[in-house]
């Protein structure tokens, strides 16, 4: 994943408000990168750019060598579904679905040739330690268990990049450390991870820390 001279602004009233200013960032395959910055620094907008959830005003976002600006909306949706696994602070599970169904959900729109979605979902649920809760719904599980489901869901399409936005923000410190150990294990197995966080202790799990302030990367 690479950002080249990236700029992003939003139109507010009669003004264009710049959020990201000439950002350059490259994440190599297999890296674990933490992005840190104070509130209002632009890290959420940066996450949206990396996750192909929004398009830049200038510059390039390259994912697996593909320039996001050249893709149609359906092509961009497919890229997100196949190449990026999302883990959010608020879990974003579907309340009426079971653990297994939530993990399986991304395969409905993005099927890879030869994948047995149900079999792989079961394997991932076991991997995150929830084999006994495959048929539980989110309301029947703790926050830490829900985040484990979210991690399994993020892996179901075998993405090139895992993007985690404050993945322990709604968890106590002990449960948060358990979640970070899962990310560390995924990293040891060769996964590429970009994590947005405000917590210096969590950033220590990463290979590299990128600091952003006022829309500019100040250390990389």
From TrEMBL:
CDD domains xref list: ABC_MJ0796_LolCDE_FtsE
PROSITE patterns: ABC_TRANSPORTER_1 (PS00211), ABC_TRANSPORTER_2 (PS50893)
Cellular-component GO terms for this entry: membrane protein complex; plasma membrane
Sequence ranges assigned to domain ABC transporter in this UniProt record: 1-220
Sorted UniProt keywords: ATP-binding, Nucleotide-binding, Transport
Descriptive protein name: Putative ABC transport system ATP-binding protein
Pfam families, sorted: ABC_tran
Protein source organism: Methanolobus profundi
Gene Ontology molecular function: any one: transmembrane transporter activity
